[in-house]
Amino acid sequence: MNFYIMTLFPEMVMDGLNTSIIGRAVNKGLLSIEALNIRDYAFNKHHSVDDYPYGGGAGMLMQAEPVYQCYDALARQITERKAKATEEKLASGEKKEMSGEQKRTRVIYLSPQGKTFNQSMAEEFAQEEDLVFLCGHYEGIDERVLEEIVTDYVSIGDYVLTGGELPAMIMIDAISRLVPGVLHNDVSAEFESFQDNLLEYPQYSRPEVWHDRKVPEILMSGHHANIEKWRREQSVIRTAKNRPDLLEKAELTDKERILAAQIQKEMTKSE
Fold it and tell me: Are 110 and 159 within 8 A, CB to CB?
């Protein structure tokens, strides 16, 4: 999977993404991450990309042309890479897959105005071959270029940051985990928080007793069916306590819904 980040601060993005699990996946060729500096497409000696907004107002605005030129260069790069890959397949004897009009690469603009990012969106984006992230700064980006190139507006929460770099890194991390081979154990991605609109169950490691707190007996029983049952129950309980809003979309049995309702009732009484 290929990630491209259009930004004013490429070092910030690459330093954060070239480590740990994501960094190892890049080294293995499972992921490709490239940061493009929008300033490189500013046609002035100072490489400035901002100007005052029409109509007045506080702060500066990123201009349309440098952003568009950066996007245009990237779009051509992606098209050329795909064309080369097709030629190599044909040269090796593979048949060309019949397809209609070439699918447009999705361009994600990180903005508080967008839909709030969640696990379902991560799963959807993980199906793409290429993703482009556009990171704003200052007071935002000229609306005209957003209308021209952006396909998705995404927010990571109802608060304001200085730029789109951190949200882009968060999204890339969440999406990358769903790419086959990135995690050592692909099954782990299926049973983490939010996978079934439930929070993850409590987990324990050695020692068996720590600060007088013991590991639950069920986890040392070796009875896998009972362990899975306990973990599911704990996920329901934890979600009911901490994120009851998720329960509306969770697929629960009648017994689990009763359990969740009891937990919420107890929480209300204790308030």
Answer: no
Q: What are phi and psi of 146, to 5 degrees?
A: -65, -45
Count of the separate structural domains present in the chain: 2
Q: The whole model's pTM is what?
A: 0.86
Q: Is the same domain home to 123 and 48?
A: yes
Residue 34 lies in domain: 2-176
**Separation CA 146–CA 143 (nearest Å):** 5
Q: What is the CATH number of the domain that holds 242?
A: 1.10.1270.20
- What is the residue-wise DSSP string for 53-112? PTT--SS-EE-HHHHHHHHHHHHHHHHHHHHHHHHHHHHTTPPPPP-SSPPPPEEEEEEE
> Is residue 25 a part of any domain in this protein?
yes
Please state, rounded to an integer, the average pLDDT across all residues of the chain. Answer: 92
CATH code of the domain in which 120 resides: 3.40.1280.10
Say if 50 falls within a structural domain. Answer: yes
**Residue 104 domain-assigned (yes or no):** yes
Ramachandran region, residue 47 (left: φ > 0; alpha: ψ -120 to 50; beta: rest): left
In this structure, the answer to whether residues 240 and 134 fall within a common structural domain is: no
Asked whether residue 191 is domain-assigned, the answer is no
Residue with tokens 């099954």: 187
The DSSP line for 126-185 is TT-SEEEEE--BTT-B-HHHHHHH--EEEESSSS--SBSHHHHHHHHHHHHTTSTTSSSS
Phi then psi for residue 57, to 5 deg, are 125, 165
pLDDT at 271 > cutoff 90: no
Among the ranges 69-78, 91-100, 261-270, which has the highest mean pLDDT value? 69-78
More confident residue, 88 or 195: 88
Q: ∠ CA(116), CA(117), CA(121), 5° rounding?
A: 125
